[in-house]
Write a structure and sequence with these properties.
Layout: E1 10-13, H1 20-33, H2 43-53, H3 59-73, H4 75-86, H5 91-96, H6 103-112, H7 115-135, E2 140-142, E3 148-156, E4 159-163, H8 172-185, E5 189-193, H9 204-213, E6 217-219, H10 223-232, E7 242-244, H11 249-258, E8 263-264, E9 271-277, H12 283-294, E10 299-305, H13 310-322, H14 328-338, E11 340-343, H15 347-357, E12 361-364, H16 369-373, E13 381-384, H17 390-395, E14 421-429, H18 431-448, H19 451-469
Parallel strand pairs: 1-11, 4-5, 4-7, 5-6, 7-8, 9-10, 9-12, 10-11, 12-13
Antiparallel strand pairs: 2-3, 3-14
Helix pairs in contact: 3-4, 3-10, 3-11, 4-10, 6-9, 7-8, 7-9, 8-9, 10-11, 12-13, 18-19
Length: 470
């Protein structure tokens, strides 16, 4: 990518009746482009898989081989792929010692961390804790009639695994947004895996954050092999009950592969934002929101407006703000591949288009944002007004920034403390209460041909009748 690259965001027009067929097709193509797929091979990926596996496998095939191999050969396979794919030179040392980072390494990183960094981590932790505690499910006891007690219990998972990215940047915020909700839920054991890089498991800010939160189980492994190790367990890294946290395409596909052996939070695609704006919106604010997602690279940024002139003003701001970005070329690449300016007829069509896209992040920067939000069903997290940028949720507000992508906000929810709870029911009836419902149970059991079910209920009444006769 060269410095002369220019931004060319697609423009979609749904403001007229004659444009609707093409508009619907364009929206479908945009939505499809944002879903994680396993059949795209980059030149680097082709070279790497050719070297490691002897053939240029698709990402989905790479993940299947790695996961099956780690399940079959355990630690040996994990260290092999860590060395071959991540270039982890310490794999040999880890195989002879402990896979887990020594706690002294975390303590040292914490001791050397800047005081203002630790203060920021502590304040954000408090924000997350307060919000997550406020929404935490509580066990419920229900007694609808004499002799009947029904309980719904919420029990924390015993052990979870957290994937922390570390390829191109360090993400202490991911540690906060995954670990703190799990701690609020009451999870006893939290294992963190991160790539063996300066931005991952060897990043001092990441390690200092882990130590500040009281998490000491850190493993310098990444990619599909780390997901497989968490799911199946290897020597020195016991299996978990659930795997959460973001990652690249290989991490997403690996989580999809192991689901069923363990639970997962989601199968994440590119980061996304939809911004709804009108003539009252500051185009500089909108441009900054768009760029904040685009710099993820890949990251999708979509502007929806019924003000025909706004797109031009936002584009002017984008070009001005791009000049100062450290990831300028990556942001331009994202805007060209996944960006769009969408012109709609009115507020109602803006809601319809947003529900179709079902974005990870929705920023409503137009007039009466809360009223408009009430009309939109599908969004992972919604940000209202000019002073609630998406970055506020990414870093500090309290809800987790691990959110549904790829259109899954139609049915999926973001990560929260409740994601780490397992619910179960407890049912207790007295003899009289059972007798009161026996006829209905017997009727349904007969309809379904399940006579043993019927007998298991009726025998309790017959047994009591015999006792009474004596």
């Amino acid at each position: 990518m060269n410095s002369s690259q220019t931004m060319q965001i697609r423009r979609l027009d749904g403001s007229t009746a004659s444009s609707q067929a093409a508009f619907a097709a364009d929206l479908h193509a945009l939505r499809t482009s944002l879903s994680p797929v396993g059949n795209v091979v980059s030149p680097r990926g082709r070279e790497l898989t050719q070297r490691v596996f002897g053939e240029p496998l698709l990402p989905s095939q790479v993940v299947e081989r790695i996961c099956n191999d780690v399940r079959a050969r355990g630690l040996e396979a994990l260290l092999h792929y860590s060395q071959q794919l991540d270039g982890n030179a310490s794999s040999a040392e880890m195989s002879a010692g402990s896979l887990r980072l020594p706690e002294s390494q975390l303590a040292e990183a914490h001791a050397q961390a800047a005081p203002e960094f630790l203060r920021a981590i502590a304040r954000i932790r408090d924000n997350i804790q307060a919000f997550q505690r406020s929404i935490l499910h509580r066990s419920v006891t229900y007694q609808p009639s004499p002799g009947v007690q029904l309980d719904q219990r919420y029990i924390p998972l015993r052990r979870v695994g957290v994937c922390v990215p570390g390829g191109a940047a360090a993400y202490p915020s991911t540690v906060l947004m995954t670990v703190v909700p799990a701690q609020v839920a009451g999870v006893e054991e939290i294992a963190i895996v991160a790539p063996p890089t300066e931005f991952g498991a060897y990043n001092r800010d990441v390690l200092a954050t882990c130590f500040e939160l009281g998490v000491s189980e850190i493993y310098p492994v990444g990619g599909a092999q780390a997901v497989a190790a968490l799911a199946y367990g290897v020597d020195g890294l016991p299996a978990v009950d659930k795997i959460v946290g973001p990652g690249n395409l290989f991490v997403a596909l690996a989580k999809k592969f192991v689901f069923g052996d363990v639970d997962i939070d989601s199968i994440a695609g590119p980061s996304e934002v939809v911004v709804i704006a009108d003539d009252s919106t500051d185009p500089a604010f909108t441009a900054s929101d768009i760029l904040a997602q685009a710099e993820h690279s890949p990251g999708s940024s979509v502007l929806i407006t019924w003000d025909a002139s706004l797109a031009d003003r936002v584009e002017l701001e984008l070009n001005q703000q791009l000049a100062s970005l450290s990831r300028r070329e990556l942001a331009i690449d994202s805007l060209n591949a996944f960006g769009a300016f969408v012109l709609v007829r009115d507020r109602q069509q803006a809601c319809t288009v947003t529900d179709l896209l079902a974005p990870e992040h929705l920023h409503i920067g137009c007039r009466e944002p809360r009223e408009l939000a009430q009309q939109i069903r599908n969004a992972g997290a919604t940000f209202l007004g000019p002073y609630s940028p998406v970055a506020l949720g990414d870093y500090a507000a309290g809800p987790s920034h691990v959110l549904p992508t790829g259109g899954t906000a139609r049915w999926a929810a973001g990560l929260s403390a409740n994601s780490f709870l397992r619910s179960g029911s407890v049912i207790e009836y007295s003899q009289a209460a059972l007798a009161d419902i026996t006829a209905e149970i017997s009727l349904l059991a007969n309809k379904e041909g399940l006579t043993a079910h019927r007998q298991s209920v009726e025998i309790r009444g017959a047994s009591q009748s015999s006792v009474n006769k004596l």
